[in-house]
Each structure stands twice: as structure tokens, then as C-alpha cells.
């Protein structure tokens, strides 16, 4: 019984590849490498500064600030400071600044008022409001010592 064609090829060397086949394979390889490079270059690196905590994220080319923040898991409210604005398109190397707003109590002339601010400290809030800070007012918002409010 003569051996089958398949078993003959299993014991012989591989037939030489045709130039056309090599050309097609080379073109496919070049396209794959080119596409991979294009995808890698289509991403921007953006820095997010959220209340002083800085991190760098990769974002798709042409993404808006809102898209960058959403993909990074950063949620904002209408009271927060976001610069540049949420609709701005970011470029490679840009920095997005987020300052989370918080409520603080300010006592002025014996009257306590709750205000919302993105300042890092009560002293920064008072300075931005044109009020003179006192020694007790230069604390971080939201941190109370035994129920005391900053005074002016």
C-alpha cells in the first residue's frame, strides 16, 4: 500500500514559500505594526490634580475634560471648581484641576453662616472673600475641634 501524500510531507522538508505569499505576509505584518503604533499614539497623557492629589492618566485623543474625569473615576458636582471646563478638549500634557467644594461655617460679628467654598483652608476662603483671617481661622474646612467654628 503506497503511503499517503500527507504522511510523505510530514517527513520531508517544507516546500519553499512563493514570493507572492511572502509579500502578502509582509504587508499584513506591516499593517499590524502600523495599526498598533497608531493606536498607541492616539492616546494623550493628562495630569489630574484633585484637591492636591496628582496623578497621570492616559486618555483617548480628543477627549473632553468631563470624559477624562469620568474614565478616571472622578465625580464632580456643580459647586466644584474644574479647570479647564468640562467641555474643553484636552491635549497631551495638559493638567486638569479639580477643587471639591465643601460647606464651612463662618462666624462674623456673632452671626454664624454656612457657606460653600473650594478653598483648601478657611483662611484661604476668608482671604478670597476679603475678610481678615484670625489665628483660629487658618484650619482645614470640615475639621472641627469640639464643635468650635472659625471666627472672624
Structural description of this entry:
- The termini are far apart.
- This protein has a four-stranded mixed beta sheet with strand order 2-1-4-3. It has a two-stranded antiparallel sheet with strand order 5-6.
- β5 and β6 form a beta hairpin.
- It has two domains: 43-99, Phosphatidylinositol 3-kinase Catalytic Subunit, Chain A, domain 1 (Ubiquitin-like (UB roll)), CATH 3.10.20.90; 101-152.
- It has 152 residues and is α+β, with helices and mostly antiparallel strands.
- It contains four helices and six strands.
- Residues 130-152 are annotated as: Disordered.
- InterPro entries: DUF348.
- Residues 46-87, 104-132 form the DUF348 domain.
- Keywords: Signal.
Describe this protein with a few key phrases.
single chain, 152 residues, alpha+beta, Ubiquitin-like (UB roll), 2 domains, two-stranded antiparallel sheet, 6 strands, disordered C terminus
Task: Please sum up the structure shown.
This protein is an alpha+beta fold and 152 residues long.
Q: How many angstroms separate the termini?
A: 107 Å
Number of helical regions: 4
Mean pLDDT score:
77
* Major sheet size, sense and barrel closure: 4 strands, mixed
In N-to-C order, the SSE pattern is HHEEHEEEEH
- CATH-assigned homologous superfamily of the largest domain: Phosphatidylinositol 3-kinase Catalytic Subunit, Chain A, domain 1
Structural class: alpha+beta
CATH topology of the largest domain: Ubiquitin-like (UB roll)
Binned strand content: 25-35%
How many structural domains can be distinguished in the coordinates? 2
Gross morphology: rod-shaped
Which architecture of the largest domain does the CATH hierarchy give at level 2?
Roll
> Can you tell me the CATH class of the largest domain?
Alpha Beta
According to DSSP, the number of beta strands is 6
Low-confidence runs of at least 5 consecutive residues: 143-152
Protein name: DUF348 domain-containing protein
Pfam family, one: DUF348
InterPro entries: DUF348 (IPR007137)
Signal peptide: 1-42
Amino acid at each position: 500500500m503506497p503511503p499517503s501524500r500527507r504522511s510523505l510531507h510530514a517527513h520531508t522538508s517544507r516546500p519553499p514559500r512563493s514570493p507572492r505569499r511572502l509579500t502578502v505576509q509582509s504587508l499584513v505584518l506591516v499593517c499590524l505594526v502600523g495599526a498598533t503604533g497608531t493606536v498607541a499614539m492616539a492616546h494623550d497623557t493628562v495630569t489630574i490634580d484633585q484637591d492636591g492629589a496628582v496623578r497621570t492618566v492616559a486618555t483617548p485623543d480628543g477627549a473632553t475634560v468631563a470624559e477624562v474625569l469620568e474614565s478616571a473615576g472622578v465625580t464632580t458636582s456643580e459647586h466644584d471648581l474644574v479647570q479647564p471646563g468640562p467641555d474643553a478638549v484636552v491635549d497631551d500634557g495638559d493638567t486638569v484641576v479639580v477643587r471639591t467644594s465643601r460647606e464651612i461655617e463662618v462666624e462674623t460679628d456673632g452671626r454664624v453662616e454656612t457657606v460653600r467654598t473650594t478653598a483648601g483652608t478657611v483662611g484661604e476662603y476668608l482671604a478670597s472673600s476679603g475678610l481678615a483671617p484670625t489665628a483660629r481661622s487658618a484650619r482645614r474646612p470640615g475639621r472641627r475641634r469640639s464643635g468650635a467654628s472659625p471666627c472672624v
